[in-house]
Amino acid sequence: MPSAKKILVLGDSLSAGLGVNYNQSWPLLVQQELNSAGYHYTVINAGISGDTTSGGLSRLPKLIGLHQPEILILELGGNDGLRGTPLGAVENNLRKMIELSNESGINVLMIGVQLPPNYGVSYTTSFEAMFANLSEEFELVLVKGELADMIKDGLMQPDGIHPNVEGHQMIQKKVWDQLSTLLR
Fold it and tell me: Would you say the pTM of this structure is higher than 0.85?
Protein backbone atom coordinates (compact mmCIF):
# COMPACT_ATOMS: atom_id res chain seq x y z
CA MET A 1 0.00 0.00 0.00
CA PRO A 2 1.45 3.39 -0.94
CA SER A 3 2.25 5.75 1.91
CA ALA A 4 -0.43 8.28 2.68
CA LYS A 5 -0.15 11.81 1.41
CA LYS A 6 -0.94 14.45 3.99
CA ILE A 7 -3.55 17.17 4.27
CA LEU A 8 -2.77 19.73 6.96
CA VAL A 9 -5.67 21.59 8.56
CA LEU A 10 -4.43 24.85 10.07
CA GLY A 11 -7.32 26.30 11.98
CA ASP A 12 -8.96 27.48 15.16
CA SER A 13 -11.82 26.16 17.33
CA LEU A 14 -13.88 25.43 14.21
CA SER A 15 -11.29 22.84 13.15
CA ALA A 16 -10.48 21.74 16.69
CA GLY A 17 -14.14 20.78 17.11
CA LEU A 18 -14.96 22.95 20.13
CA GLY A 19 -18.24 21.83 21.68
CA VAL A 20 -18.57 18.53 19.77
CA ASN A 21 -16.84 15.19 20.19
CA TYR A 22 -13.51 15.28 18.36
CA ASN A 23 -14.58 12.45 16.05
CA GLN A 24 -17.59 14.59 14.99
CA SER A 25 -15.43 17.53 13.88
CA TRP A 26 -15.31 18.29 10.18
CA PRO A 27 -11.59 17.38 9.74
CA LEU A 28 -12.28 13.87 11.07
CA LEU A 29 -15.35 13.62 8.85
CA VAL A 30 -13.15 14.58 5.87
CA GLN A 31 -10.75 11.79 6.86
CA GLN A 32 -13.66 9.33 6.91
CA GLU A 33 -14.75 10.51 3.46
CA LEU A 34 -11.20 10.11 2.12
CA ASN A 35 -11.04 6.58 3.52
CA SER A 36 -14.46 5.67 2.09
CA ALA A 37 -13.50 7.00 -1.34
CA GLY A 38 -10.26 5.00 -1.35
CA TYR A 39 -7.87 7.97 -1.22
CA HIS A 40 -4.56 7.45 0.57
CA TYR A 41 -4.44 10.73 2.49
CA THR A 42 -4.01 11.39 6.18
CA VAL A 43 -5.61 14.52 7.62
CA ILE A 44 -3.38 16.22 10.19
CA ASN A 45 -5.62 18.42 12.32
CA ALA A 46 -3.57 21.34 13.67
CA GLY A 47 -6.64 23.26 14.79
CA ILE A 48 -6.22 25.10 18.10
CA SER A 49 -9.11 26.87 19.80
CA GLY A 50 -8.49 30.60 19.95
CA ASP A 51 -5.79 30.60 17.28
CA THR A 52 -5.32 33.64 15.08
CA THR A 53 -3.65 34.24 11.75
CA SER A 54 -0.49 35.42 13.53
CA GLY A 55 -0.44 32.21 15.59
CA GLY A 56 -0.99 30.14 12.45
CA LEU A 57 1.78 31.98 10.65
CA SER A 58 4.21 31.31 13.50
CA ARG A 59 3.27 27.58 13.59
CA LEU A 60 3.13 26.89 9.85
CA PRO A 61 6.87 26.55 9.02
CA LYS A 62 7.36 23.89 11.70
CA LEU A 63 4.17 22.07 10.65
CA ILE A 64 5.28 22.03 7.01
CA GLY A 65 8.71 20.70 7.98
CA LEU A 66 7.24 18.04 10.24
CA HIS A 67 4.39 16.79 8.04
CA GLN A 68 5.31 17.83 4.46
CA PRO A 69 1.67 18.09 3.39
CA GLU A 70 0.46 18.08 -0.19
CA ILE A 71 -2.57 20.19 0.72
CA LEU A 72 -3.15 22.89 3.33
CA ILE A 73 -6.68 23.65 4.44
CA LEU A 74 -6.36 27.17 5.83
CA GLU A 75 -9.17 27.94 8.29
CA LEU A 76 -8.05 30.98 10.24
CA GLY A 77 -9.19 34.55 10.69
CA GLY A 78 -12.34 34.21 12.77
CA ASN A 79 -10.66 35.06 16.05
CA ASP A 80 -8.84 37.97 14.43
CA GLY A 81 -12.19 39.32 13.25
CA LEU A 82 -13.89 38.81 16.60
CA ARG A 83 -11.05 40.80 18.21
CA GLY A 84 -11.36 43.58 15.65
CA THR A 85 -7.81 43.02 14.39
CA PRO A 86 -6.98 45.50 11.61
CA LEU A 87 -7.79 43.99 8.22
CA GLY A 88 -4.33 44.77 6.87
CA ALA A 89 -2.69 42.65 9.57
CA VAL A 90 -5.05 39.71 8.98
CA GLU A 91 -4.58 39.89 5.23
CA ASN A 92 -0.79 40.12 5.58
CA ASN A 93 -0.70 37.00 7.79
CA LEU A 94 -2.95 35.04 5.42
CA ARG A 95 -0.88 36.17 2.44
CA LYS A 96 2.37 35.03 4.10
CA MET A 97 0.89 31.61 4.91
CA ILE A 98 -0.27 31.20 1.30
CA GLU A 99 3.12 32.27 -0.05
CA LEU A 100 4.96 29.94 2.34
CA SER A 101 2.73 27.07 1.21
CA ASN A 102 3.18 27.92 -2.47
CA GLU A 103 6.97 28.04 -2.04
CA SER A 104 6.78 24.54 -0.52
CA GLY A 105 4.66 23.19 -3.40
CA ILE A 106 1.55 22.84 -1.24
CA ASN A 107 -1.93 23.35 -2.68
CA VAL A 108 -4.04 25.64 -0.49
CA LEU A 109 -7.75 25.34 0.10
CA MET A 110 -8.97 28.41 1.98
CA ILE A 111 -12.05 28.51 4.15
CA GLY A 112 -13.61 31.96 4.14
CA VAL A 113 -14.85 33.46 7.38
CA GLN A 114 -18.01 35.42 8.04
CA LEU A 115 -18.41 37.48 11.17
CA PRO A 116 -21.58 38.17 13.14
CA PRO A 117 -23.30 41.36 11.92
CA ASN A 118 -22.72 43.25 15.18
CA TYR A 119 -19.20 44.13 14.05
CA GLY A 120 -20.56 46.67 11.57
CA VAL A 121 -21.27 46.42 7.87
CA SER A 122 -18.02 48.01 6.72
CA TYR A 123 -15.72 45.73 8.74
CA THR A 124 -17.69 42.51 8.17
CA THR A 125 -18.08 43.11 4.42
CA SER A 126 -14.40 43.99 3.99
CA PHE A 127 -13.39 41.05 6.16
CA GLU A 128 -15.35 38.56 4.07
CA ALA A 129 -14.11 40.09 0.80
CA MET A 130 -10.52 39.66 1.94
CA PHE A 131 -10.81 35.86 1.63
CA ALA A 132 -12.38 36.06 -1.82
CA ASN A 133 -9.73 38.55 -2.99
CA LEU A 134 -6.82 36.44 -1.73
CA SER A 135 -8.32 33.31 -3.26
CA GLU A 136 -8.68 35.05 -6.59
CA GLU A 137 -5.20 36.58 -6.46
CA PHE A 138 -3.50 33.27 -5.66
CA GLU A 139 -5.97 31.14 -7.67
CA LEU A 140 -6.94 29.16 -4.58
CA VAL A 141 -9.91 26.95 -4.00
CA LEU A 142 -12.25 28.82 -1.62
CA VAL A 143 -14.92 27.39 0.63
CA LYS A 144 -17.16 30.33 1.44
CA GLY A 145 -18.26 30.84 5.02
CA GLU A 146 -22.02 30.91 5.40
CA LEU A 147 -22.58 31.85 9.03
CA ALA A 148 -25.98 33.46 8.43
CA ASP A 149 -27.31 30.34 6.70
CA MET A 150 -25.90 28.12 9.42
CA ILE A 151 -27.60 30.15 12.15
CA LYS A 152 -30.89 30.23 10.23
CA ASP A 153 -30.74 26.48 9.60
CA GLY A 154 -30.06 25.65 13.28
CA LEU A 155 -26.53 24.38 12.65
CA MET A 156 -24.88 26.36 15.44
CA GLN A 157 -24.30 25.78 19.13
CA PRO A 158 -26.08 28.18 21.51
CA ASP A 159 -23.07 30.56 21.43
CA GLY A 160 -23.89 31.39 17.79
CA ILE A 161 -20.19 31.10 16.89
CA HIS A 162 -19.41 27.38 16.82
CA PRO A 163 -21.17 24.77 14.68
CA ASN A 164 -23.05 21.88 16.24
CA VAL A 165 -22.71 18.29 15.00
CA GLU A 166 -24.96 18.96 11.99
CA GLY A 167 -22.98 22.14 11.28
CA HIS A 168 -19.75 20.16 11.16
CA GLN A 169 -21.39 17.72 8.75
CA MET A 170 -22.37 20.63 6.48
CA ILE A 171 -18.84 22.07 6.62
CA GLN A 172 -17.41 18.65 5.77
CA LYS A 173 -19.66 18.43 2.71
CA LYS A 174 -18.65 21.91 1.52
CA VAL A 175 -14.95 21.22 2.14
CA TRP A 176 -15.19 17.83 0.40
CA ASP A 177 -16.82 19.36 -2.69
CA GLN A 178 -13.82 21.66 -3.10
CA LEU A 179 -11.10 19.37 -1.72
CA SER A 180 -11.97 16.62 -4.17
CA THR A 181 -10.73 18.89 -7.01
CA LEU A 182 -7.23 18.84 -5.45
CA LEU A 183 -6.92 15.12 -4.77
CA ARG A 184 -4.77 12.84 -6.94
Answer: yes
At a CB cut-off of 8 Å and minimum separation 6, what does 150 contact?
156, 163, 167, 170
Element (H, E) at 9: strand 5-11
CA distance 86 to 7: 29
153 carries an active-site annotation: no
Which one from 80, 135, 162, 168 is the annotated catalytic residue? 162
pLDDT tens-digit readout, 58-84: 999 999 999 999 999 999 999 999 999
Q: Kindly give, in sequence order, each residue whose CB lies less than 8 Å from that of residue 170, ignoring residues fewer than 6 positions away.
A: 150, 153, 155, 163
CB 142 within 8 A of CB 135: yes
- Distance (Å, rounded) from C-alpha 47 to C-alpha 55? 11
What are the two backbone dihedrals, phi and then psi, of residue 84, each rounded to the nearest 5 degrees? 70, 30
80 tagged catalytic: no
Catalytic residue from among 12, 13, 51, 168 = 13
Q: Which amino acid is at 90?
A: V
Q: Is 13 a catalytic residue?
A: yes
**pLDDT tens track for 156-181:** 899 888 899 999 999 999 999 999 99
